[in-house]
Design a protein that fits this description.
By secondary structure, this protein is an alpha+beta fold. The chain is 32% helix and 32% strand. The chain has helices at 3-8, 36-40, 42-81, 158-216, 220-274; strands spanning 17-18, 24-27, 30-33, 95-101, 103-116, 118-126, 131-135, 145-146, 151-155, 276-278, 283-288, 295-296, 301-318, 330-335, 344-356, 361-369, 383-400, 408-416, 425-433, 436-441, 453-457, 468-470, 482-487, 493-494. The strands form four sheets. Strands 5, 6, 8, 11, 13, 14, 15, 16, 17, 20 and 21 form an eleven-stranded antiparallel beta sheet that branches. It has a five-stranded mixed beta barrel with strand order 4-22-18-19-23. The chain has a four-stranded antiparallel beta sheet with strand order 10-9-7-12. A hairpin with a 4-residue loop joins β15 (344-356) and β16 (361-369). α4 (158-216) packs antiparallel against α5 (220-274). The longest helix is centred in the middle third of the chain and has 59 residues, at 158-216. The protein starts with a helix and ends in a 22-residue tail after the last strand.
C-alpha cells in the first residue's frame, strides 16, 4: 500500500502514514514507534496499521447499533405506557337556552347628561353711599343664615340725615309760600269784586248827573267831579285785577319749585335709607367683607346671599333631544353621578333656544327644591348626572341589551323535526337584523323580571311580536344549531311545552374523559 495514498485518500486506511525517516507510523491519529523488524520489513508494518483501522470501524458501528436499539426500545416502552383517551363523542342534543318573547311596550325616551348645580336666587350687595361702617351684627358671618330685612351693615348716616333735613325745610318753605299765595289770591278776588261794585255805582252816578245837567241845569263842575271819581275807581280796579292775574303764575312757579325740592327730599331720604344695608332675600351668607370702622365707597362689595331652597342645574343633552324634551318633563339627578346615593326628583324648567354647534349639545335647565338644613342638601357647584325622561310615550319593541351582537340577534324558530329527533318538530337558532333606536335602563317585569338594561328598536327592525330572542349561551350558538328554548318572564317555562326545570345548565356538546 502506498503511504501517500493512505494520507490523501478517503477510506478506512485514511490517517495511516510512515514518517520520512521510517522511525514511526501514525494510525488513527496516534503515533506508534517502529520496531527494528518493522523497519526491516516496511510492508508488514503497513498491513498491521490497516488491520487496526478496520477493527476500530467495526467497534464504532457495533456501538452505534446498540445505542439505536436501546433508544428504539425506550420509545416503544414509553408509547405503550402512554394513557389512552377515549375519542370525543359529539352529540346533536338540543342546547338549552333562555329566551325572551318579543313584545311591544310603552316606553318613554330617557336622555342622559351632566351639569353643575347653581342657586336660582342669589343677591350680591354693594354699598351705594360713601361713609364709614358704624355697625355690623355679631351674627353676620359667612355661613350664617339670614332672613329678608336683616341688617348686614350700617354706614354712618350723619351726612345723609343733614341733606334730608335741608330738603325737608326747603319743601316746607315753598309749601308755606303756596299757602300764603292762596290767601292773597282769595283776598285779591274779594277786592276785585268790591272794585267792580264801586265802579258800577260810580258809572250809575255819572249817568244820573249827566241827565240832571241836561234837564235841570246842574253845574258842569259837579259833572267833572263825578267823572274823576269814576276814573279813580277804574284805576283801583285795574291794579287789583293785575295783582289777581299774577296769582296763578306765581302759584305754578311755587308748585314747580316744590316738586323739585320734593325730588331732592326723596333722594336724601333714599340716601339715608341706603346707609342701612339689609338682606334682600332669605338665605345663607357666602361672603361678608366690611368691618366696623372701615370706609366704604359707592360700589364697594359688601356681602353675597345665596338661597338654597331652589336649585337649578344646566344640563347638556345631545342636540336631537330638543325635538322631544319639553318644559315640565320629569328628570332624575344623581349627585356626583353616584346612583347608589339615591336620585333627586326634578323637573325641566326651561330649554335654551340654541344648540352649541361645537359640542352638538343643547342646554336644558333642570330645577328642584330642597330643605337647606336637611341631610344631603345639594350645594351650588356640585357635579350632577341627569336623566331627563320625555313625557311622550310610544309603543316600541324592546329587547335585552345583552342579546344584540353586530346589529343582530339570535332567535329560536320552530322547524321540522330533524332525523332521529323525537317529537313532530324542533327548534333551531336563526339570525335577525335589528336597528337600535336608543337604550334605556330599568325593569320591565311584564317582559322579563331579570333584565335591567334594554334596547328600544327602530320600527324598521326585522323582529316581530311573539318571536323568541335568545339571551343565554350566545357564545356557543351558531345559526342553525338545535336549541331547547326556555321562556323567561311572566310565563316562564319551556317554549316547547316543557317544564321550568328545563332552565338548568345545558349539557356539553362533547365530553372528555380524564386519563386512565
Amino acid at each position: 500500500m502506498n503511504p501517500t495514498d493512505s494520507q490523501g485518500g478517503a477510506g478506512p486506511l485514511q490517517g495511516v502514514a510512515t514518517s520520512q525517516d521510517g522511525a514511526s507510523t501514525v494510525a488513527n491519529g496516534r503515533a506508534h514507534p517502529l520496531t527494528a523488524a518493522d523497519r526491516a520489513h516496511p510492508s508488514r508494518a503497513a498491513g498491521a496499521s490497516a488491520a487496526g483501522a478496520w477493527v476500530s470501524v467495526v467497534v464504532r458501528g457495533v456501538v452505534s447499533l446498540v445505542l439505536l436499539a436501546g433508544a428504539a426500545g425506550i420509545f416503544v416502552a414509553l408509547l405503550r405506557a402512554a394513557p389512552r383517551l377515549r375519542p370525543l363523542e359529539l352529540t346533536d342534543a338540543p342546547l338549552a337556552v333562555r329566551v325572551v318573547a318579543v313584545r311591544r311596550a310603552e316606553v318613554a325616551r330617557t336622555w342622559e347628561g351632566f351639569g353643575f348645580a347653581s342657586a336660582m336666587r342669589t343677591a350680591e350687595l354693594s354699598s351705594q353711599v360713601t361713609g364709614r361702617v358704624v355697625e355690623r351684627p355679631g351674627a353676620v358671618e359667612p355661613g350664617a343664615r339670614v332672613s329678608a330685612g336683616d341688617v348686614i351693615v350700617r354706614i354712618d348716616p350723619t351726612d345723609a340725615q343733614a341733606r334730608k333735613e335741608a330738603a325737608d325745610s326747603a319743601v316746607a318753605a315753598v309749601t308755606a309760600q303756596l299757602e300764603a299765595l292762596d290767601i292773597q289770591g282769595r283776598s285779591l278776588g274779594d277786592r276785585l269784586r268790591q272794585a267792580d261794585e264801586e265802579l258800577s255805582s260810580a258809572n250809575a252816578e255819572l249817568e244820573r248827573i249827566r241827565g240832571a245837567v241836561e234837564t235841570a241845569g246842574f253845574a258842569a263842575a259837579e259833572l267833572d267831579r263825578v267823572i274823576s271819581s269814576v276814573r279813580r275807581v277804574e284805576q283801583a280796579r285795574r291794579l287789583i285785577a293785575e295783582q289777581f292775574e299774577t296769582v296763578p303764575a306765581t302759584r305754578a312757579r311755587l308748585v314747580a319749585d316744590r316738586l323739585g325740592l320734593r325730588a331732592e327730599q326723596r333722594l336724601a331720604a333714599e340716601e339715608l335709607a341706603r346707609t342701612r344695608i339689609d338682606a334682600p332675600i332669605s338665605g345663607v351668607l357666602q361672603r361678608v367683607e366690611p368691618r366696623v370702622g372701615e370706609l366704604m365707597r359707592a360700589g364697594d362689595f359688601v356681602a353675597r346671599v345665596v338661597d338654597l331652597t331652589r336649585i337649578e342645574v344646566p344640563v347638556r343633552l345631545p342636540a336631537e333631544a330638543a325635538a322631544s324634551v319639553r318644559a315640565g318633563d320629569p328628570a332624575r339627578l344623581y349627585v356626583g353621578g353616584d346612583t347608589a346615593a339615591g336620585a333627586i326628583d326634578a323637573v325641566v324648567g326651561r330649554i335654551a333656544p340654541e344648540a352649541d354647534a361645537q359640542t352638538r349639545t343643547v342646554t336644558v335647565f333642570v330645577e328642584f327644591g330642597q330643605d337647606p338644613a336637611g341631610a344631603g342638601a345639594v350645594l351650588p357647584g356640585r357635579y350632577l348626572r341627569a336623566e331627563v325622561t320625555t313625557r311622550g310615550v310610544s309603543e316600541r319593541i324592546v329587547i335585552p341589551r345583552g342579546a344584540v351582537s353586530d346589529d343582530a340577534v339570535l332567535i329560536a324558530t320552530e322547524s321540522a323535526a330533524a332525523q332521529g329527533a323525537q317529537g313532530p318538530a324542533g327548534w333551531s337558532a336563526a339570525r335577525r337584523e335589528v336597528r337600535v333606536a336608543y337604550a334605556r335602563d330599568g325593569r320591565l317585569p311584564e317582559i322579563d323580571p331579570r333584565e335591567t338594561q334594554w334596547l328600544v328598536l327602530d320600527p324598521l327592525s326585522d323582529l316581530a311580536d311573539g318571536e323568541l330572542v335568545i339571551v343565554s349561551n350566545l357564545d356557543e350558538l351558531r345559526v342553525g344549531r338545535r336549541v331547547s328554548p326556555v321562556r323567561s318572564g311572566p310565563a316562564a317555562g319551556s317554549a316547547g311545552g316543557g317544564s321550568p326545570e328545563a332552565a338548568a345548565p345545558p349539557p356539553a356538546r362533547a365530553t372528555k374523559e380524564a386519563p386512565r
